[in-house]
Amino acid sequence: MAATAQNNEKVLEVNRSDLRQHQSKWLKKARGQHVLLVKANDSEDEKIVLDRQYFDEMRERVGSLVETLEIAMDRKLFNQILAAADTLEEDLRLGKLHSLEDAFAED
C-alpha cells in the first residue's frame, strides 16, 4: 500500500478486504501521526482511521484557528489589538507592564 507525507503526517492506504483480513496489523499502524486511509471504489465511501490523541490535537488546532480567524475578522477588536501592540515595546521599557506571576500572585 502507498504512503504519503504531509506535515509530518503519514497516510497509509489500505483496501477494505486487506483491512478485514489484517485488521489488527493495520489498526496498530494508525498511531501518532500515522493515518489510515481505507480505500473504496467510490471516494465518498473512503474512511480515515486516526489515533485518538492525534485526533484531539487536530481538533484543538482547528479550534484555535477558528478563534484566531474570528478575532481577525472582528475589525474593532483587531484594530484594538494592533494599537496595543504598537505601545507594548515602550510600555515594557518604561516598566508599565507586569509579569503574569505578579498579576496573578496569590497573597
Structure description:
The protein has about 110 residues and is α+β, with helices and mostly antiparallel strands. The protein has 2 domains: about 5-50; about 55-90, no CATH class. Helices cover about 55% and strands about 20% of the residues. It is built from 5 helices and 4 strands, in the order E-E-H-H-E-E-H-H-H. The protein has helices at about 15-20, 25-30, 50-75, 75-95, 100-105, and strands spanning about 5, 10-15, 35-40, 45-50. It has a 4-stranded mixed beta sheet with strand order 1-2-3-4. Strand 1 and strand 2 (about 10-15) form a beta hairpin. The longest helix is centred in the middle third of the chain and has 22 residues, at about 50-75. It is elongated. It starts with a strand and ends with a helix. About 5% of the residues are buried. Mean pLDDT is about 85; it is low at about 1-5.
